[in-house]
Amino acid sequence: MLLNAIRVAVLLALESVMGTIAQSFNVTTPIFWQNTTITTPVTARIKTSENAFQPIFDNLVNQTSNSVEFKDNPPEFSMPGTFFWELALFDYLTNQTTYQDKVQSYFASVAKDNPDFSGQYLDTALVYGYAAMQAHRAYGDPLYLQYAENSWAFGYNWTIKPADVQAGSFPGMNWTIPPQCSVGTLAGGTFWQALGSDNTYINALATGLFCSLRIAC
Ligand SMILES: *[C@@H]1O[C@H](CO)[C@@H](O)[C@H](O)[C@H]1NC(C)=O
Ligand SMILES: *[C@@H]1O[C@H](CO)[C@@H](O)[C@H](O)[C@H]1NC(C)=O
Ligand SMILES: *[C@@H]1O[C@H](CO)[C@@H](O)[C@H](O)[C@H]1NC(C)=O
Ligand SMILES: *[C@@H]1O[C@H](CO)[C@@H](O)[C@H](O)[C@H]1NC(C)=O
Ligand SMILES: *[C@@H]1O[C@H](CO)[C@@H](O)[C@H](O)[C@H]1NC(C)=O
Ligand SMILES: *[C@@H]1O[C@H](CO)[C@@H](O)[C@H](O)[C@H]1NC(C)=O
Question: What span is annotated as the signal peptide, if there is one (predicted)?
Answer without folding.
Answer: 1-22
